[in-house]
Amino acid sequence: MLGHKKQSCKYFCSTCFEENKRGENSIGNMDETKKSEYRTTQFYQRDAESGSFGVKMGSGPLLKNVSVKNYLPGMLHLITGVFNKYVFEPLWQHVMKIDNDTDFIIFRDMKRTVKEAEMKIEATKKNAEENEKPEEREVIELELGMLHQQLCRLNEIVTGCEGTVWKKLEDAWESLGASRKAFFQNYTGNHVKLLLSQKGVDVTRNVLQNTRSPKIEAILESMEQLHTVMHLSRNKLLEDTEIEEFDAAITKFVSFLKCSLPSDSVTVKLHTLVFHSRDVLRDQLTLGRLSEQGIEATHALFNRLERRFVSFRCKRTRYKQVLQELLCNKPAAQSCAAADAAYWRLRRHILFFYVPLFLIHLYALCFGKISVLCGSVGSALEYKS
Ligand SMILES: [Zn+2]
Ligand SMILES: [Zn+2]
Known about the structure:
The chain is mostly helical. The chain folds into 3 domains: 1-71, no CATH class; 76-284, no CATH class; 292-380, no CATH class. The protein has 18 helices and no strands. The chain has helices at 41-50, 75-99, 110-130, 134-159, 165-175, 189-195, 198-208, 214-231, 240-260, 268-275, 277-284, 298-308, 315-328, 331-339, 347-352, 354-365, 367-370, 375-380. Helix 8 (214-231) packs antiparallel against helix 9. The structure holds zinc ion (2 copies). Residues 292, 296, 299, 361, 364-365 line the site of one zinc ion (ZN). The chain crosses the membrane at residues 351-378.
């Protein structure tokens, strides 16, 4: 929508001009008081001309009057990414250090752990084959047999077998309704919502209370702060005290991360959560509206209208009618008002907020179909959900 090259580029944040310096972008180096300049649509247009600061050449924002801050990814999306990388993965790694009774090394990534173990076996095997002294070969082959047994054991441990701490933890999480389809998967947004409930934090603490190391303790504390952040990101206007609470939770979250994972790199999601979510909250008094999730119901409405105008043979005319209906009869504004009594308090936001969001959503919704209608815009800017 903005024509930003996403996280792989040097200016990895689509909201500000923060530079992702290789080797320097660690949590330990993160200074939350130092903020880079915010991007604006004007800056986007300027940078699109030369393709600089991570903006795609010839691209640029689709909607010129929507402030760049309003393009911030949804909070659940941010929190899920941050949870998986800075809570779930390190927790897994540290619990594995307790559970692991093999000689293999446990890495943060489960796949890598198993792969490195397999590589070690391969290397030993090659060693045995190439060795010409029979007695030495025998020793290596014995070792190889042992490694094979250990690999079987390792496979059990990484997925959490009976008696391990990890199994207890996953059982506790499953009792909350958060169970992954496969062991190699990360948790989805809905899982993370459950895991970051007060109950989720409590059961996690319970399971790990006898195994606590300072590192696990710091991870648990950061999980607790993330719970507060999640809780205050719901679809509700926040009071001043709650805004302060949110502010404090982010600050504490950062300080616990500095304890638990100082050398970890800062992802765009973490950067956005730490540097931008608070500014947006102060502007808009809520983070719950900051996503298209609230207007997902438009899908149904859109389909209904499409059926209604099915008699228009020409696609162009039909979608024009649908659009007209959606925009002029303000169904988005109406349904939001019905859903939220605070609508009137936010009325001044409607123009800057709902309408553009609604347009963005609409664009996503009918992109495939509507490309007929706005082919030139469509080809210039591809929508990535
Ligand atoms: Zn930024
Ligand atoms: Zn949608």
